[in-house]
Design goal:
35% of the residues lie in helices and 22% in strands. By secondary structure, it is of the alpha/beta class. Strands 7-8-6-9-10-11 form a six-stranded parallel beta sheet, with helices on one face. The N and C termini lie far apart (57 Å). This is UDP-N-acetylmuramoylalanine--D-glutamate ligase.
Length: 447
């Protein structure tokens, strides 16, 4: 409400966007970041005349808030969050806040793996089909900032579990859950059940006019569904079985049936190849048919889409060695998908970073069959050595992207692939996974 104190914790993309929207709505806005605020965000806050602090959280200022918008990166165990919870102050996400000020149709996409690719592909299809659509969430400009400055009819939102945790009344019209595999368990008391519960929050508040699109081949998703009832219309996708509604494979044909529409496309014509990308394309395709887009437009967009940087991105071929940047693989399952999609059996794999409670056993069979050497890139590599020393003859330690690339180049020979797919978070040596991927690409280009 106008004049009331609204505090934003964290001054990254999402926090600064929320601050702008809150200011626009007449709140007394205060932004607090325990770390250093990036210059570009400081400049924006100053330009908008929004008060802020960095390198501290001043409790006397923050506890005056009627409501607090928290950055997804701040855990519940942070002292300031505990103080707010004790006082009973509502703590919400930027998505929850921004959702109050838009009547757009919301397509929300979550899952342990494939979120960014599926969100980007869905946005690409909708935009090319002529829809007035925005892309936000974990990707692009903040949702709140776009709500404040644009008037989109549709939004494609990439939603992480951390965002979903702080969403209560927000409703997703078309919800997509790609998969549930162990990730971020350090934030969920190391319980997969807690993490799965978080993912299923994407379906909360849905009604009979909404849709829930999910993978019928994913064991954890099916387990979670058995414990819940759904108001929304269910549209599953599978590459293992034929389905009356949803998406499935009919030989080489990707087939989609929604209550009012039918779509087919040969999988060899998809821009995104590999088993995991068939799932991603199915999910995007179902969204497109729910929105009743023309088949020709969907086929064209699915055929000409270019994947996002840092996700299985081809960097260069040097001396017959292929270099692939999959820096976005911040968990074991992402690395599993990357290895599973490698065409040859001679991979030099660059692994390591901040281990979030990883179970490396999932990778053992692929490491045995496809990996000739492992280059560790991180400050703590002991668990990688423990996991794979019996399966891989050569495991070396490095402490920078440049060192890792040089070591991998030395270990690889003509016809091999050097794959950066770390299975870990990046913040031991890098600002984020983009910085890690960019440093890797630069090092490759300097060979």
């Amino acid at each position: 409400m106008a004049g009331e104190r609204l505090v934003i914790l964290g001054a990254g993309e999402s926090g600064v966007g929320a601050a702008y929207l809150a200011k626009q709505q007449g709140y007394d806005v205060f932004v607090s970041d325990f770390g250093v605020i990036a210059d570009k965000y400081k400049a924006q806050l100053e330009e908008w005349n929004i008060r802020f602090e960095e390198k501290q959280h001043t409790e006397s200022e923050i506890l005056l808030a009627v409501e607090v918008i928290k950055s997804p990166g701040i855990p519940e165990k942070a002292a300031i969050v505990k103080a707010l919870r004790a006082k009973g102050t509502p703590v919400i996400s930027e998505i929850e806040f921004a959702g109050r000020y838009t009547k757009a149709c919301i397509i929300g996409i979550t899952g342990s793996n494939g979120k960014t690719t599926t969100s980007s592909l869905t946005y690409h299809i909708l935009k090319n089909a002529g829809l007035n659509v925005g892309l936000a969430g974990n990707i692009g400009k903040s949702f709140a900032y776009q709500v404040a400055t644009e008037s989109y009819d549709h939004y494609v939102l990439e939603l992480s579990s951390f965002m979903l945790d702080d969403m209560y009344k927000f409703k997703v019209n078309i919800a997509v859950l790609l998969n549930i595999t162990p990730d971020h368990l350090d934030r969920y008391d190391y319980k997969l059940q807690n993490y799965a519960d978080s993912k299923f929050r994407i379906t909360q508040n849905q009604t009979a006019t909404d849709y829930f699109i999910y993978c019928a081949d994913d064991a954890e998703t099916l387990k979670g569904m058995e414990q819940r009832t759904f108001e929304a219309q269910l549209l599953p996708f599978s590459i293992q079985k034929t389905l009356p509604l949803g998406a499935y494979l009919n030989g080489e044909e990707l087939t989609i049936n929604t209550p009012n529409n039918h779509f087919e496309m040969t999988i060899t014509k998809l821009a995104l190849q590999g088993k995991h990308n068939i799932y991603n394309s199915m999910a995007s395709g179902i969204v497109s048919k729910v929105l009743e887009l023309r088949n020709g437009d969907i086929r064209e967009s699915m055929g000409n889409f270019r994947n996002v940087p840092h996700r299985l991105e081809h960097v260069a071929d040097i001396a017959g060695i292929r270099f692939i940047n999959d820096s976005k693989a911040t968990n074991v399952n992402s690395t599993w998908y990357a290895l599973e999609g490698m065409p040859n059996e001679k991979v030099v794999l660059i692994l390591g970073g901040v281990d979030k409670g990883n179970d490396y056993n999932e990778l053992t069979s692929l490491i045995k069959s496809k990996v000739k050497a492992i280059v560790c890139m991180g400050t703590e590599n002991a668990r990688i050595h423990e996991a794979f020393s019996d399966d891989v003859k050569t495991i070396v330690n490095t402490a920078s992207a440049k060192e890792a690339v040089a070591a991998a180049y030395k270990l690889a020979t003509k016809g091999d692939t050097v794959l950066l797919s770390p299975a870990c978070a990046s913040f031991d040596l890098f600002k984020n996974y983009e910085d890690r991927g960019d440093q890797f690409k630069q090092a490759v280009m300097e060979l």
